[in-house]
């Protein structure tokens, strides 16, 4: 039996843990669960810490349960939220559950014949038969309102700046989550719930129900909420969440997110989001500190997590696309498909022109100014061309250059450049 608490501690993944948990886990194989919000048909990287906790738990010889909150997804968790969450119908929840399981299977072993094979459970399956009267009789009477009101997640909402307060539905959330723990304690011999530090109040409501109703002992463990050194929100980009689904966030953008991590964050994230051992990580950190400009930490972090979430082939494509941007020639860029090409130049100004314009003979003055507004005027365009500061598809051009179909990248793009850093993409339709 591997010491799970030791493992997550050195990785910086432990925020708080109930006394006795380490000893409890070292006695024999135990069962633990993490709750996952099913309000989308994909996980995003904000979910990954909980998933990594489950994987380390399984690697330590224990049995992980991933609980899809079908019932709690219909209510909305007040923890860390300022507004009530949208409620979903059952068909949507079931679809989301299956999609999430497929993503979890890249981390957790659901198919092993070993006793610690992972399982996916949905609290809707045991909550849907509960009547309101049955729930308040069998569960509600064991927890006082005073106990529920003392939870930070409730106090913050009630004392918040907004006057909306908190619905009764949300107020009961901790009881529903607490009952999940009680149910899994009874049905699966689950004795540990894990989650983010904002979940401590909800988790301990579960341990309290196990104590009061079953006279049993259950445990709680939380991980820190992941932050970024610059104060911006982890897991977000200008386009929103960084998803695990390749259709929502491409492998290239996923890879780039981790590659652009700051030095401080990379040192923290490589412990949390990879399975590299302590010795390997310490060597990487030392190597990075000797030559930070080579970004060894960021590169290894981005490589490890992209392969884990996507595939080796996706990683290789992402690296090729990254290299293509900095390549002095067009050879690498010409290999990219349309979607990846546009992602590489995401944020670069773009314009569209017609194929008729191209066929009529498109000169550089028109391409730079009249047809695109890349430069402010024809005179600006002439001046920059005379100063030899304009490139077309990474090759220097003069005023006499006429653009033709042969210049198109993938039969539809032209790449203009002024100096080293100012790019402009023309799409020919």
TrEMBL record:
Under InterPro entries, the record lists: aa-tRNA-synth_I_CS, aa-tRNA-synth_Ic, Rossmann-like_a/b/a_fold, S4_RNA-bd_sf, SYY-like_C, Tyr-tRNA-ligase, Tyr-tRNA-ligase_bac-type, Tyr-tRNA-ligase_bac_1
Q: Which Gene3D superfamilies match?
A: HUPs, RNA-binding S4 domain, Tyrosyl-Transfer RNA Synthetase
Positions bound to ATP: 236
Chain's gene name? tyrS
* Originating species: Flavobacterium proteolyticum
**Ranges spanned by the short sequence motif 'KMSKS' region, renumbered to the chain:** 233-237
Output this protein's name.
Answer: Tyrosine--tRNA ligase
Sequence motif: 'HIGH' region, positions: 38-47
Purpose: Catalyzes the attachment of tyrosine to tRNA(Tyr) in a two-step reaction: tyrosine is first activated by ATP to form Tyr-AMP and then transferred to the acceptor end of tRNA(Tyr).
Which Pfam families does the record match to this protein? SYY_C-terminal, tRNA-synt_1b
In short, the EC number is 6.1.1.1
Catalytic reaction(s) noted = tRNA(Tyr) + L-tyrosine + ATP = L-tyrosyl-tRNA(Tyr) + AMP + diphosphate + H(+)
């Amino acid at each position: 039996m591997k010491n799970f608490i030791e493992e997550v501690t050195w990785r910086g993944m432990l925020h708080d843990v109930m006394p006795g948990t380490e000893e409890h886990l070292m006695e024999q194989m135990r069962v633990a669960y993490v709750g996952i919000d099913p309000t989308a048909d994909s996980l995003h990287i904000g979910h990954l810490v909980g998933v990594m906790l489950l994987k380390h738990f399984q690697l330590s010889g224990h049995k992980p349960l991933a609980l899809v909150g079908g019932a709690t997804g219909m209510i909305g968790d007040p923890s860390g939220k300022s507004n009530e969450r949208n409620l979903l119908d059952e068909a949507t929840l079931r679809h989301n559950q299956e999609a999430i399981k497929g993503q979890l299977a890249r981390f957790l072993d659901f198919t092993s014949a070993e006793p610690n094979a992972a399982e996916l459970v949905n609290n809707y399956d045991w909550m849907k038969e509960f009547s309101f009267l049955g729930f308040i009789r069998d569960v509600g009477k064991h927890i006082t309102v005073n106990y529920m009101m003392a939870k930070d997640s409730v106090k913050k909402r009630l004392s918040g700046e907004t006057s909306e307060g908190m619905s009764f539905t949300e107020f009961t959330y901790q009881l529903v989550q607490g009952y999940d723990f009680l149910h899994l304690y009874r049905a699966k011999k689950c004795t540990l719930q894990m989650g983010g530090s904002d979940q401590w109040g909800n988790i301990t409501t579960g341990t309290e129900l196990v104590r009061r109703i079953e006279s049993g002992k259950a445990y709680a463990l939380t991980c820190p909420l992941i932050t970024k050194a610059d104060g911006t929100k982890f897991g977000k980009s200008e386009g929103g969440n960084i998803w695990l689904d390749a259709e929502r966030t491409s492998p290239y953008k996923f890879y780039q997110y981790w590659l652009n991590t700051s030095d401080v964050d990379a040192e923290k994230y490589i412990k949390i989001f990879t399975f590299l051992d302590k010795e390997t990580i310490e060597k990487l950190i030392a190597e990075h500190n000797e030559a930070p400009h080579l970004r060894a930490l960021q590169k290894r972090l981005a490589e490890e997590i992209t392969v884990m979430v996507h595939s080796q082939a996706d990683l290789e494509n992402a690296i090729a696309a990254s290299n293509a941007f900095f390549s002095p020639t067009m050879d690498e860029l010409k290999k990219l498909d349309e979607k990846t090409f546009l992602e590489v130049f995401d944020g670069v100004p773009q314009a569209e022109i017609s194929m008729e314009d191209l066929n009529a003979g498109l000169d550089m003055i028109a391409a730079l100014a009249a047809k695109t507004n890349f430069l402010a005027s024809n005179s600006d365009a002439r001046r920059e061309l005379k100063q030899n500061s304009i490139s077309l598809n990474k090759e220097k051009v003069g005023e006499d250059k006429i653009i033709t179909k042969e210049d198109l990248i993938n039969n539809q793009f032209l790449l203009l450049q002024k100096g080293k850093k100012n790019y402009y993409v023309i799409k020919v339709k």
